[in-house]
Amino acid sequence: MRHTKTCNRCGQEKPITDFHNSSRTKDGKNYYCKDCENARNRQYRGTTNKKNWKLKNRFKITYQDYLNLLKIQNYKCLICGCDYTAYKEEFNREFCVDHNHKTGEVRGLLCTACNRALGLFKDNPNILRKATEYLEERGSYDTH
Question: Which long-range contacts (CB under 8 A, 24 or more apart) does 62-71 make?
Fold first, then answer.
């Protein structure tokens, strides 16, 4: 096993421990050394706010797209209808971007509880229907 590797960015040969692990490469190590990767990340993150960076990388939308979705949704969670401003004030966090895990398509913005509930029900409408039937049969839901 090799104990050194050449960074594809700076061209320097460095100890293998100077490279992050990567499942995408044959040798299991990143193409770029940690120093180069960290410098690139600092440069990129310095040019954009953290929320915008996360949205672009995870969901392929901008923060402006996020704000537009909020406006379209009338600043409400699409499932429970809780108000975004009150939610943010109470929990000090923004709505989650709900998306299709197979296609990556953004479906809308949800409060954390609703987003987690969908995940716990495996985004499966059949399971959700069964849960609804269960609650309706038992009379254990708020009718207001």
Answer: 66/94, 66/97, 66/109, 69/106, 69/108, 69/109, 70/95, 70/109
